[in-house]
């Protein structure tokens, strides 16, 4: 279930060019009318967001063949179908936004699409004044200098409708970058592929890209005031929107999750409403906090996960020695799915959502690699069960050990409870004792770690 890595491509230093050469894609939009809007609203698959919830930069509409940015107001056909090609990405830096990420592999052919946006430069967070727009447009058209920066327009600078673009080729690999400025955000569309047909289709679709006028209520209109019906379903990108991540890091909602306590081999959490009886011969494990990663992206992922969750319990066999490599363990977490913007499965047929949860957990960095998942229901509780591996290391150990793992996750009282069972091998994992769970008003549920094993009830 691990997310494919994007195709490598040369990094191009284009920030100054983007900032100076962009033309303010909303310049031809009609001015907003005072008071209640007289314009008809766009017809969408779901109601527009509430008035008090701002439209996020990641907000858009996605069908199997088409993408529309609700926030930025551009739209184009995709050179590949969405179904089966969506990938998850890590959370973006504080001022960057992921709008879309798709990838395909078919035999030796492969291709990748990403759409990202970057916040305005400080001091330019308002629409560029009209005179500045004329100056920049004149500069971009004539190839002269602009804004006193003393930078000539590069010879490769081309324009396709309102997107500038450049094409790179290295052997059989192609990369195409498209960029523009909308309300001083820098928007970039990136394609990479070794398939000429894919790239040709991508270029044609970008040449036919359409620009609309976003309204404050989330609707889109054309420059001549006609409402736009965006195809597809509401979509907020391949990862948690940046402003949501920033809010979670500030508010730390995970700190409000009750911790519970262990007594006589039973973990009790009345605040959430359940008990978990540890396997016989197991003990709670108290460890020092793990040092957070140093790399910026991984650190942001780490902080985001811990802002939206709590580790409720860690347990190991009684004979486990602290100075020995870990051979078996149980970790119980409570995640706030609203904070993580994580949908959870609602029925035994909701396999796609289970796959999305698996991909999200992998991207969060502390749940290992997930190879398969299944859905199981017992006593009215639906469990998403994930099988895979996880790397662990003891303090002082230079090399990480790779353990087999099974995770059982269920939604309860607005939280996602995740039990992770780890053992030194898949055979050891199949025989691992797992204890039992008792939710409010239900019989005890005995978990199993082997693939395709059904959850079963156990006597309280």
Question: What does this entry show, briefly?
Answer:
The protein has helices at 15-21, 130-142, 196-207, 242-251, 296-307, 351-363, 426-430; strands at residues 60-62, 66-69, 74-77, 96-106, 109-118, 158-160, 163-170, 173-182, 185-193, 210-211, 213-214, 220-221, 233-235, 261-263, 266-269, 274-277, 282-284, 309-317, 328-335, 369-378, 381-392, 401-412, 415-423, 436-439, 444-446, 456-458. The protein is an alpha+beta fold and 460 residues long. The protein has 2 domains: 15-239, no CATH class; 252-458, Protein Transport Mog1p, Chain A, CATH 3.40.1000.10.
Walkthrough of the structure:
This protein is of the alpha+beta class. The chain has two domains: 15-239, no CATH class; 252-458, Mog1/PsbP, alpha/beta/alpha sandwich (Protein Transport Mog1p, Chain A), CATH 3.40.1000. It has helices at residues 15-21, 130-142, 196-207, 242-251, 296-307, 351-363, 426-430; strands at 60-62, 66-69, 74-77, 96-106, 109-118, 158-160, 163-170, 173-182, 185-193, 210-211, 213-214, 220-221, 233-235, 261-263, 266-269, 274-277, 282-284, 309-317, 328-335, 369-378, 381-392, 401-412, 415-423, 436-439, 444-446, 456-458. The strands form five sheets. Strands 17-18-19-23-22-21-20 form a seven-stranded antiparallel β-sheet. The protein has a six-stranded antiparallel β-sheet with strand order 4-5-9-8-7-6. The protein has a six-stranded antiparallel β-sheet with strand order 14-15-16-24-25-26, with no helix packed on it. The longest helix has 13 residues, at 130-142. The radius of gyration is 25 Å and the shape is elongated. 37% of the residues are buried. Residues 2-27, 32-51, 143-161, 394-399 and 456-460 have low confidence and may be disordered.
């Amino acid at each position: 279930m691990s997310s494919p890595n994007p195709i490598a491509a040369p990094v191009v230093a284009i920030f100054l060019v983007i900032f100076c050469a962009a033309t303010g894609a909303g310049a031809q939009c009609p001015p907003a009318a005072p008071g209640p809007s007289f314009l008809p609203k766009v017809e969408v698959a779901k109601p527009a967001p509430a008035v008090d919830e701002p439209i996020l930069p990641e907000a858009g509409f996605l069908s199997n063949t088409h993408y529309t940015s609700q926030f930025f107001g551009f739209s184009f056909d995709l050179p590949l179908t969405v179904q089966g090609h969506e990938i998850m990405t890590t959370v973006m830096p504080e001022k960057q936004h992921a709008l879309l990420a798709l990838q395909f592999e078919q035999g030796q052919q492969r291709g990748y699409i990403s759409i990202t946006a970057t916040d305005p430069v400080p001091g330019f967070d308002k629409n560029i004044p009209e005179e500045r727009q004329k100056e920049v447009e004149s500069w971009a058209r004539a190839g002269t200098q602009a804004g006193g920066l003393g930078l000539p327009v590069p010879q490769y600078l081309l324009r396709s409708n309102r997107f500038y673009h450049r094409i790179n080729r290295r052997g059989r690999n192609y990369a195409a970058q498209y960029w523009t400025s909308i309300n001083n955000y820098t928007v970039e569309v990136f394609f990479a592929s070794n398939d000429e047909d894919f790239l040709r289709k991508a270029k044609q679709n970008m040449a036919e890209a359409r620009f609309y006028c976003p309204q404050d209520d989330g609707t889109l209109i054309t420059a001549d005031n006609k409402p736009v019906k965006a195809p597809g379903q509401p979509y907020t990108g391949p990862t948690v929107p940046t402003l949501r991540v920033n809010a979670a890091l500030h508010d730390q909602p995970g700190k409000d999750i009750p911790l519970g306590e262990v007594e006589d081999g039973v973990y009790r959490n009345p605040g959430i409403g359940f008990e978990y009886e540890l396997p016989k011969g197991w003990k709670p494990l108290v460890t020092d906090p793990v040092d957070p990663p140093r790399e910026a992206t991984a650190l942001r992922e780490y902080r985001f996960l811990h802002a939206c969750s709590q580790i409720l319990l860690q347990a190991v066999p009684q004979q486990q020695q602290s100075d020995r490599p870990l051979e078996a363990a149980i970790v119980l977490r409570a995640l706030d799915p609203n904070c993580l913007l994580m949908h959870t499965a609602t029925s035994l047929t909701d396999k796609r959502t289970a796959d999305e949860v698996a991909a999200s957990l992998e991207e969060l960095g502390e749940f290992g690699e997930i190879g398969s998942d299944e859905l199981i229901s017992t006593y009215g509780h639906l469990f998403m069960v994930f099988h895979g591996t996880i790397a662990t290391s003891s303090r002082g150990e230079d090399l990480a050990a790779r353990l087999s793992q099974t995770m059982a996750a269920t939604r309860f009282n607005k939280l996602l409870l995740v039990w992770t069972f780890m053992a030194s091998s898949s055979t050891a994992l199949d025989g691992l004792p797992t204890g039992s769970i008792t939710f409010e008003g239900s019989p005890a549920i005995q978990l199993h770690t082997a693939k395709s094993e059904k959850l079963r009830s156990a006597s309280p």
